[in-house]
Design a protein that fits this description.
mainly beta; 8 strands; single chain; about 50% strand
Length: about 130
């Protein structure tokens, strides 16, 4: 039995094993807008992400972070939208606990938050 199988079994039993962002490719994407929904404890980033890892074509997407707390921005003042360099889990918070500290590196600095899940959705941009 490998790690993905173990994670799936634990998830089926309601035991969350933290956030996994390894399948979310963000390099050279653009961060357009961030929306916080305090009631739902979500943070939504409107982004343009590469259509696939080998593509230069950027497509509109939403990065949705769930169970969010501690969102912080460590960026300097630079003109224009930040280019996204990397998305990573920098710390699992508490053994098999459900929270992870996630970091988004950009050309302006970085952003961090603690969350229980991250997902990518298709998005039709609003003017």
């Amino acid at each position: 039995m490998d790690i993905p199988d173990i994670k799936a079994i634990l998830a089926e039993q309601g035991l969350v094993v933290g956030v996994d962002v390894s399948d979310i490719y963000v390099h050279d994407g653009k961060l357009l807008r961030v929306i916080e929904d305090a009631e739902r404890e979500t943070l939504t980033m409107e982004v343009l992400l590469p259509a696939d890892p080998k593509s230069d074509v950027l497509v509109p997407r939403l990065l949705i972070f769930e169970g969010v707390y501690g969102y912080q921005i460590f960026e300097g003042r630079v003109v224009g939208c930040p280019t996204i360099l990397d998305l990573s889990v920098v710390e699992k918070l508490g053994g098999l606990g459900k929270w992870s500290r996630v970091r988004l590196d950009t050309t302006h600095g970085y952003r961090e938050l603690c969350c229980t899940a991250v997902r990518v959705c298709n998005h039709e941009p609003v003017a």
